Amino acid sequence: MASDPMAGRPGGGRGPVSSRGGLTVLAVIVSLISLFPVLWMVSSSFKTRTTVTDGNPLPRDFTLGNFVYVFTEVPFARYLWNSFFTSAVITVVALFFHSMAAYALARLRFPGRDRLFGAIFATLLVTPPVVLIPLFMVARQLHLLDSYAGLIVPAVFNAFGIFLLRQFYLQLPRELEEAAVVDGCGHWRVYWNIVLPMSRPILSALAIFFFLANWNAFVWPLVATSDQDLTVVQLGIASFQTQYGSNWNYILAAATVAALPMLLLFFAFQRQIVESVKTSGLK
Q: Does the keyword Membrane apply (predicted)?
């Protein structure tokens, strides 16, 4: 009778399987811990004022009145539109300029290219509060305060997008670009007809990052705007906490409305986000 080749091994060869199962259990626990605040927020947004702090995970007195109040008593729809408009414009414009800059830094050869990229990359080490006052002074001199331009223009330029796109472009095969140049294409046509279509996965992921970051923007809109018609959704939620500090049902309803589009957007494009990290050289 043939002997079992796994019999002499410690644990019967089930070590890797057991470790994988332990990692799976750990991932599930961490995921539940991460999701619990979101689920609690959504559940509490359907509770009444008297039961919102009762500690029960599910609402006993289910109501939609909190959402009705949010959209009827305050201009919350206007806040959502302001955040959507500014985030969408910033995302489109930033991706256009970032992709061009990253392509130039990755493919074109010109004096000082590496130093220029180093200077751009170094701006990632500067925290936003450091440049907040200089940025405000520049925006005031250019008459950008209390305007959509003041919310959009300062947020367009970001070194993170240029860095990530440059890493992606460095991995693209040069043969396609060289063949296009042989056929008579210039740098613009190579960028527009070849490089840009191949960049859809990384551009999709960056679009999510940019849109999410600007949707959640708080400090710069607080500094740059005082007009109620330009209030973004995060400032609107902050004003809820000031005016309705004891009415957590209204605050959580507003927070749920603000978070729901981002959650849907993430789940719809999570594959592009994972693929962009895999293909950008960030292991």
A: yes
